[in-house]
Design goal:
13 helices, globular, single chain, 1% strand, two-stranded antiparallel sheet, mainly alpha
Length: 304
């Protein structure tokens, strides 16, 4: 809604999209307590608004866009029942229509494209089936027809990063290889060329497959920690030195289990290498070290 419409048909289409997006934006504002008052014009949602009404709605949506960060959009759309394929497509159309796009707009667009692809693709889609022609086909409703043979010059770099990620067996491998950062660097280097349809198609494929790798490794680490805690409890271990992960010197293993279960929910909407994920990586190392010491003690006939 940032473009100035030139015909009544464009104004009507813009107004209909604003009416459709308003409940989504209003719910997002409530969840993250944005300092934005509701829009009376969109609350009443008259069928045939005048030009001033459309302008006020346009300004309100632009204000919301300015408050909204990509991590908030990600968390909200992955946890709200309002985020169906139609809603994501409308959000995409709004961001793609902006005449001036910032890095924040790029990151939002990148997430929305992956979310749209995820909602459109079959649930049992295999990684091997996510090739360039298939991604171009599924994204055609939002990007238009894209020539899958016309991939950008930097496309091989994305493939190298993706291959490195797929070889990892645990999250620590992603961190040590700075794999997530390498992918973001390629995206940043593309600058405004990112918004070329063929580039957005290539990055959508990359981000979709990277997200799959990320969550597979995340759940592998969480399950390894929970299995390790179970093994320690069977050996009579009730506390664990988890200072390296930011916990106590004598952290109860029962509390660690509860934390891991809560992490499964918290990390569902996150896809980054922030401090909580580093804590998870360090916690797995602490549990594995404790298991190793416990096994060595048992093998040596040492009793607790």
């Amino acid at each position: 809604m940032n473009d100035v419409p030139t015909t009544s048909a464009q104004t009507a289409a813009e107004w209909e999209q604003a009416r459709f997006l308003y409940p989504l934006y209003a719910a997002l504002a409530r969840e993250f307590v944005f300092d934005v008052q509701p829009c009376p014009d969109l609350e009443t949602a008259v069928d045939v608004p005048d030009a001033e009404t459309v302008d006020r709605a346009r300004e309100w949506l632009a204000l919301m866009d300015g408050h909204m960060r990509v991590h908030q959009l990600r968390q909200f759309l992955q946890t709200t029942p309002l985020a169906n394929e139609t809603a994501v497509r409308a959000l995409l159309a709004r961001h793609l229509r902006k005449p001036i796009k910032t890095e924040v707009d790029r990151d939002k667009t990148d997430f929305l494209l992956v979310q749209y692809f995820s909602l459109s693709a079959p649930s049992r889609l295999e990684d091997a089936d996510v090739d360039i022609p298939y991604v171009a086909q599924l994204l055609e409703p939002v990007l238009g027809e894209v020539d899958p043979s016309n991939t950008p010059a930097w496309f091989p770099k994305l493939e190298e990063v993706l291959t490195s990620a797929q070889k990892c067996t645990r999250l620590s491998g992603l961190f040590r290889g700075e794999i997530l950062e390498r992918g973001r660097a390629i995206k940043a280097e593309a600058q405004q060329d990112y918004f070329q349809p063929v580039a957005m198609m290539a990055f959508t494929r990359f981000s979709f497959l990277m997200r799959r790798v990320f969550f597979r490794l995340l759940h592998n680490d969480l399950n390894a920690i929970l299995d390790g805690i179970h093994g320690l409890e069977q050996r009579g271990v009730t506390t664990l030195d988890c200072r390296r992960a930011g916990f106590a010197r004598s952290e109860p293993v029962a509390r660690l289990r509860m934390i891991c279960q809560s992490w499964k929910v918290m990390f569902h909407a996150e896809y980054s290498s922030g401090q909580p994920l580093q804590m998870l990586v360090d916690l797995r190392s602490a549990v594995e070290d404790a298991l190793s010491r416990s096994s060595a003690a048992a093998a040596g006939g040492i009793t607790r």
